[in-house]
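agent> Task received from the user: take the single chain below, predict its 3D structure, and emit structure tokens. No templates, no multimer pairing.
agent> Plan: (1) validate residues, (2) run structure prediction, (3) serialize to tokens, (4) report one or two observations.
agent> Step 1 OK, no nonstandard residues flagged.
tool_call: predict_structure(input=
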Amino acid sequence: DGYLAMVGPGWRLDRDGRVAQDPQPDLVVMRRTAEKLIEAPLLAVEILSPSDLHKMETHDLLRIEGKRLDYAENGLADYLEVDLLDGRREIHRYELVDGVLELVETVTDDEVMTAEWPFAYAIRPVDLLP
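)
tool_result: status=success, residues=130
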């Protein structure tokens, strides 16, 4: 209650009075009371899926790291990266620490990731693939 999950939205960034290109994660969770996503969402999720595998090269990995830097710079405090590449089932959780999204937890397969912040949730990688 009180939260809204949205697939693929970006959020508007105000840089020096100009609207910059918006970050666009695969999924975001925001407060239901927000009319527009003009601030960082409560949680953002990037999904690395098997359909991405054929195009995952060094520049793509750098792009993902670049997204993390962009998200952190724009105030995202909680971020999940779901890795379903090459048969893996992993979830990496990052939190904003001193302006950088730092890895704080990784779970695989049937391990459960639980969080109380920014809201309570639990997730298992094994539940993400048929």
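agent> Step 4: summary for the user.
The first helix runs from residue 58 to 73.
agent> Done.
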